[in-house]
Amino acid sequence: MAGRATIADDLVFPSQAGTVMKPDNIVPRYMEPALERAGLRRFRFHDLRHTFGSLLIQDGASLAYVKEQMGHSSIQITVDTYGHLIPGADIAWVDRLDAKTTAQQNATQAQPADSRLEQESAEVIEKVWLPPRDSNPDMLIQSQLSCR
Question: What pTM was estimated for this model as a whole?
Fold first, then answer.
């Protein structure tokens, strides 16, 4: 403050005397009347902080930058608070995985079609005789029913 009479230019909310305003005076003296004049609903002063962090994230700022701007002690606090706002974060991971897959990365290789084998299988299935059975597949219940 060398050579200056006031620090008002350095403050977001200076008092009428150009000094630091008492925090308890900001909301009732300035914020609430401004919200009323603007026709906005009342909200907490602290909500402005979350709005700032949210807008940074949604605009693409890095989590490290948001951490510094918000003054968080660790990046984990930033991720826990604002991580859900990262645009397309989940979609981006899925897209990255999709980009890495190729036709050869299937769990099983495609088997060549052998029409002769398919015809033989169909013939065998048609000739198989299955005895009638009770509609209940539980073998314990079926065995007890047959003992009567």
Answer: 0.48
